[in-house]
Amino acid sequence: MPKTIYDHRERRSGVIKELIKRDIDVIEKDLKTADYIIQTKDLNNKILNLGIERKSVVGNTSVVIKQKEEIRILPIKEAYAIFKKNKDMEVTGLDLKNKKIGWFNVYDVTKHKSNDIYRISTSPKIKKKYDKEENSVVKLTGGHNVYVFRNRKIIIIPTSELKRGDYMILIPPKLKEINPKPYKSFKEFLKYVQSDSIKNFKLYKKEFKLGSGLHNQKIPEFNKDFFFLLGLWVAEGRYDNLQLTINQKDKLRNKIIERYLKRVFKWYNKTSDAYGMGGKVYYKLFKDILKLKNGAGNKTIPSIVFSAPNKLKAEFIKGYLFGDGYRNLNKNRKNPQLMAVSKSKLLIVGLSYLLFSLGVENSTHQEYKSYNNKRRKYYLLRIKTISLKDFIKKIGQVPTKEIKIQKSVSTKIPYYLKITIRQSLPKLNKKDLKFLYEDLIYLKKGKTKSEKELFKITNKIHLKGKSIKKVYKEIITKVGEDTIFLLHKMYQKEIFLARVYDIKKLKINQEVYDFSVKHAENFIGGMIPFLLHNTTNDFLNSIIDKRLITQLIDLKKHFDLTLLIIEGTENIYEIRNFHPNSIRGMLASIAIDFQVPILYTRNYRDTANLLAIIAKRLEKPRSLPSLLKKRKPLTLKQQQEFIIESLPGIGPILSKSLLKKFKTIKNIINAEEKNLQKVKKLGPKKINNIKKVLEGSY
After folding, report:
1. From CA 372, how far away is CA 340, in angstroms rounded?
2. How far is CA 519 from the centre of its chain?
3. How crowded is residue 557: how many other Cβ atoms within 10 Å of its Cβ?
4. What is the pTM of this model?
5. What is the separation of C-alpha 252 from the centre of its chain, rounded to a whole number of angstroms?
6. Cβ–Cβ under 8 Å, residues 477 and 462
7. Which stretches does DSSP call E strand in 222-328?
């Protein structure tokens, strides 16, 4: 059986598992010049190597997942474990071909070890006391791809080619608004609470009483007041003797807390340093149903918040920031910033994703502080000055931390985007951009929804084309289709950009994980929701960065036989803003200039099937193909002419002249050079080439 060798980076592709299922022996190596090598022997027992390059046309990190309408943020290694038990999982992604943001099914989650890991930071450098202190928002392998806005286009590049100053694409998770129902019925929940006791409960219309309880208590209402207190408890609460407690600090703050406690729980008790409330039922609700944990480093945002209506999400955020938020009132700032800090990474990540989903831009990073002579790591969230208007509009003012904003603050287009796009674009409002974005579909076909509206908008951005066809060409060349799409989605608060401040390769070797996602082939992850592409070898992207040419040269240089597999079902002429002739030209060059065969497969399973068939075919003895045309001469003369024509430089006319002069093939072969030169059109150069063929060793 031929040896099938694969590059270690292909371990996560799914192809290897499929090959093993088919009893194909596979060996893992660090291959520099191919993705796969199938090694066999020729008829002379000489080793032959078939080098195969695999491309795609579909194109410890925190991720957001959805299972049965429950949305959670968790480390990707936990998502990996969950997926192995239950493959029903979705992630937020971007179908770039159809310009659609949404939830897409995960069809595989893989892991492998890597020492090719990069740390990316999108926040200004922090003051470090020790070298090991870092300021990263995501860690990725060098081959993992990210989405970047460059030169009026959204492009996919390997992490290793990311540069300082690049703008990475952020996409908030698409959070649905449904009424939160953490249990089927309150009566059923009370039975669960009483499962370890013979005592009964009494259930009234709006209240209940446990058999051992002293007071009637309110049936939990999942309203604004409850979500505000839920956020406050996540910030500063704990479990204490089968009840919930919240710290008390000052009179103004305490008055606000007491007002909420009465509305939510009806009663509470107060000690010198905390409020106690809720009793056993609320304790069970928080601990066992909402799965909230004690301890500052263990706090997370309950999944009920992610699926709640936006007005309840806003109350949760207000409650949390009321407890743990603070204003950056630096005198050098024109406007304050609203900030929060926690020991829990997942809590800050969840808060960041929540804010982004509500249209509020923010940033996160690590922060280090010395406490009791020890250096401790915290996670900081910063609601940017540019987003304060959005925060007040979508979330509202936070009690005791109200913000006043000067009129100079604008959230229309960030400054860093203004300097990279056409200067006149900021003149367009939401309505104009939406029209242009939707009209691009018609413009591709030489039509428009409204010619009057189109020319009115294009005049604003100084595009002077006098026909629909010319206007479309100007939009594509001077503005860029991706720019229109990006600005429209930024105006809608569905896409954001984050500037790369620092990128560094790390000297570590650890497990890395990856999602394979239907339709989108990307997902969001990191401390802020970066759009990450799971495929390392994107075919179209490798044309842009010229990696494909280098890879093909290496293939031809190192292997006896070569093959290129292009994997995917999408139409490669429609996936990106490529001119079709650019793709056709590259395919022609691969086949003709490099003489590398191209085969197409639907997916990784189809690729595995193809590799298995190739390996088994190479196992069989093979007869060499004839170099001569398969035509059968009809007469002896034709056979003689055929043989002489096969000599270099000899055509039909010259072959007949030679046979007429020398009569037989044997005489032609044995003829001296001076006699051959007597034949018209047979010069010294042709005679020399013929002699090389007749007299040269095989």
Report:
1. 22
2. 12
3. 10
4. 0.71
5. 46
6. no
7. 237-239, 244-247, 268-270, 274-277, 325-328
